[in-house]
């Protein structure tokens, strides 16, 4: 049986629509539970009264979170660390990716491949040696130390993605610019980067979320409450005996906001940016 | 792609290209640097050793008790002429201590003073990281009524006293007496067999009778398993600290646990994936009628004004052929030998342990710790709640979970790697025979003891 | 090229290149300069720690006391333990199915989002949300969803009449690993969706139009145009995700810590437990090192394909 083009298209859209509903439910269900719990009184969270929706919605958990915990500090720290890591990675990775795609030098291929292998290093393995290094340069227990360590996973990741985008830019553009008397740096900043703005946005988004999420390094490299980040601060709320689902769910909700804001800021570029990288010229 | 060309401000071509690019680099760099430094300016740089005194406070499940320790630390520091900025107090939750200390020791920056459980003290002490606290202990012994001598032998390692006992943790049976009464029992049954009888009547899913800790997080689960095994006369090690787990008693205990979990189903299925707080949460949220735990649960019920508080009694766990007793552990304060001013570090412990300071702490901790000074049991606090009678009884019958031996480095590894509990899980989940599970646990113990170089 | 750069200027008379100009136009020097920050970062926070960890795996090392070299003993201890082989198997299973399901759902999401539909922006945003939720937090939220007594999943299933009372999803041997994988999938799928959506949008429309003229249906177009055009994207995404998935400890650490009976234990978390909880840093490093050759082989296979494609 052969469906007509139109019928086949309509059918696939209908299937797609059904699938979309399922996907959205699957994505939102845990988030719904998080929001619902964060609006419940302790007595509604547990026991026979526990239902899907809060009977008497309350902001109590948010008040506890913001007034009685260090959450605002963790939040600020996470924001600083993620932003700084993102900015630095962008600079370092643009330079690196440009060199690896446009400058011909011996060992280039090897270097590019080696970059991939740096992801293989699980942070669960690296954190103790890393602590020694971070301490020896006097950055233990500082946000700078965290940023520096995060560059370890964010730079290779960003470089690798950017290499893809750079390759998609016709080299002729640069060559003609150079013939016009533009230097290499000039080419990078005046031609390549403006063209890859969407890609930079995509890379910035990934770099931001990766640093926003990081858990192991954060839990050993910084100790002081003043320099803790959200992923290490929140599990603190389960101080063994105190169960704290209400404020914890409130904190999880707030923690998801900054990456979402970054996403909204960049979403115009995100898909375009990834598209550029995906085709490779 | 041309869409993005507007981002490229194709200015006047006549400009000197080289200068332009250099300026652009500088501008970009300056913006990045300025952005970064501005954000960092707002955070305090805190480097561990700028402080003269570093205390890692492990939260006591009770904010007032924590605040009191902070206050006492600052009070001590001021009396020694330290500025507030010379003192650093970090709150390190119990679950993070192992990780944080491992990293801190590796880089040579442990705190000056912190609290440790028995396993911590043995591990850090054996590796030579802890100061000899003899002067502090002598001071404590000189107090009226002295200290509970049972709390002492454990901390003696490598010829020195590595920990100052700061609290007796009695693992008390927390019993929802209302549930037992509904089932026709006036108190917790004497024996495990009787307990199972009662539990079958009490258990009506989703309500379960026994919130047994069976997860792979070190400690609570081992205590729960050993409370059954001990009742049948099994022990982990013998008097010479050699592995002694292989016994009919251990097999009997394992079989009983298997029966409770798989046949009578009086334990929530989820217990095998609980972390150390699992049994606490289950009890505090009213899902189980019995848990064995330090009284941190009871003090949380008090703090939270829990609806279950009045129906909760503390008792000795059910017994068996070997008797009926509870387990008791001692928490210690310890000082690390990396402390720049050793006198100052030890002085802080002595300050915490001054009876008047200590008594306030014990009372604020709301029953979490029994005092190491027997004299302080006369405080009216201990007669303020009827439930404390059961706690004191539990403490009196208390033995170390490592009875009749002592916690050694090899045993400490057995504990922290959950060797025994893993075999219990193999039995419960994978259907391994109890005999085989006990034998395998014993064999793994022997391997560890051999490797560490301890007699087997 | 240096000459050309300096002489093509209209307004300013030619002059010998300054040092800056010289450096900025000498390709090799420039390459070194550009790569220097990357090299500094990678050597100090990846390469050196890795070598340190590799050396550790041949040592008996406890925190804060000098190491003792013990050759292959750590590895021998591992491979003579049945539990460890189980953990190795779990890791492969967890990574394999995690990546496979993420791939399928990610591709499905991308295909659906790529269809013309009103409010597509909103749907896209919703499907990307989990990526913005830190893994620690996603794990905690799911822990609460799975709760035996008061979790969303059990409440729903009981209301629908499918269950009498709650199931401990993370404790039942049948479900535990899948419950963990579900969280990995939930949190990690948007990464695939984003890349795949980008890949789909990069496929020239003309290819489809041509195929339609030839009378190809949706399914044939998918297999003959979409899949081949996306192979590079597939490779890169799978590679990155495999590494992220197999080396992350967070989900298992927070949700089960290996229970029940080590059925959900995976290598990175076991390594963390051995190195930190039990203070055996040497053995802990060895545990992680075992994963390394698997990943290397996997990546070599994938990148070789990629490079061959690039060459052609």
Descriptive keywords:
heterotrimer, A: 281 residues, mainly alpha, MetI-like fold, 14 helices, 75% helix, flat, C: mainly alpha, 2 domains
Characterization of this structure:
The complex is a heterotrimer of chains A (281), B (456) and C (312). Chain A has helices at 5-38, 42-45, 60-68, 71-102, 108-117, 123-136, 143-168, 171-179, 184-195, 197-213, 216-221, 230-233, 245-255, 257-279. Chain A is an all-alpha fold and 281 residues long. Chain A folds into 2 domains: 5-45; 63-279, Orthogonal Bundle (MetI-like fold). The two termini of chain A are 39 Å apart. Chain B has helices at residues 17-41, 63-79, 97-106, 118-126, 134-141, 177-182, 192-202, 220-231, 248-263, 278-284, 296-303, 342-353, 355-364, 387-396, 409-416, 419-430, 434-452; strands at 53-57, 87-91, 113-116, 156-157, 160-161, 164-176, 208-210, 288-294, 312-315, 328-335. In chain B, helix 2 packs across helix 12 (342-353) and helix 8 (220-231) crosses helix 9 (248-263). In chain B, strands 1, 2, 3, 6, 7, 8, 9 and 10 form an 8-stranded mixed beta sheet that branches. A two-stranded antiparallel ribbon of chain B has the order 4-5. Helices cover 44% and strands 12% of the residues of chain B. With 456 residues, chain B is α/β, with parallel strands linked by helices. Chain B contains 17 helices and 10 strands. The longest helix of chain C has 33 residues, at 82-114. By secondary structure, chain C is an all-alpha fold. In chain C, helix 6 crosses helix 9, helix 12 (231-247) runs antiparallel to helix 15 (281-311) and helix 14 packs antiparallel against helix 15 (281-311). Chains in contact: A-B, A-C, B-C. Chains A and C meet through helix 1, helix 4, helix 5, helix 6 and helix 7 of A and helix 1, helix 2, helix 3, helix 5 and helix 6 of C.
